[in-house]
Amino acid sequence: MDLRWMTTVDADAVVAASYLFDYDARSEWADRFLAQPDHHLGLAYVEEAPAGFVSGVEVTHPDKGTEMFLYELAVDAQFQRRGIGSALVRALADRARERGCYGMWVLTDTDNPAALATYTSSGANDRSDHVMLTWRLDPAHQTFTDPADGLRSTGSTELP
């Protein structure tokens, strides 16, 4: 596996790896994400094929300092069970440490054993029972549509 951290010149590579994401990556959104110095996106390649990705965002608060939010992790189905997901999580944790983050956190579903195993095998150890609430500021946005209407299975090569 070859891990490449995307930079401002890599929006095309992100768009080319759209099948790894929940939805098609858009050039303008990839450009905006990659232009932020506290946003991180690493693509894993196996024999030059995008096999997975991890994204993270540094979050700073006046009374806490800076921590890394592991925004999303996905590994293409044909490359799963090879340690790529764990390697991507560890790489993001290393990057967070290098950038002075005091911690890293992620949200996942309690009924997602693969994610839980990946995160715990990669060093996560504090588990909580938090609830995530969402404000639908743009109800027509694709992330609020019915998953049957186009959301890909994360990490799958199946397209809608």
CATH class: Alpha Beta
Query: How many distinct beta strands?
Result: 5
Taken as a percent bin, the fraction of beta residues is: 15-25%
What is the general shape? globular
Q: Per CATH, what is the topology?
A: Aminopeptidase
Percentage of helical residues?
Answer: 10-25%
Structural class: alpha+beta
Tally of alpha and pi helices? 4
What is the terminal-to-terminal distance? Answer: 27 Å
Major β-sheet, in short?
5 strands, mixed
Number of domains: 1
Summarize the structure.
The chain is built from four helices and five strands. It is α+β, with helices and mostly antiparallel strands and 160 residues long.
Task: Tell me about this structure.
The chain is of the alpha+beta class and 160 residues long. The chain has one domain (2-149): 3-Layer(aba) Sandwich (Aminopeptidase), CATH 3.40.630.30. Helix content is 24%, strand content 24%. The protein has four helices and five strands, in the order βααβββαβα. It has helices spanning 11-16, 27-35, 84-98, 113-121; strands at 2-5, 39-46, 49-61, 65-75, 104-105. It has a five-stranded mixed sheet, sandwiched between helices. The protein is globular and about 40 Å long. The two termini are 27 Å apart. Residues 153-160 have low confidence and may be disordered.
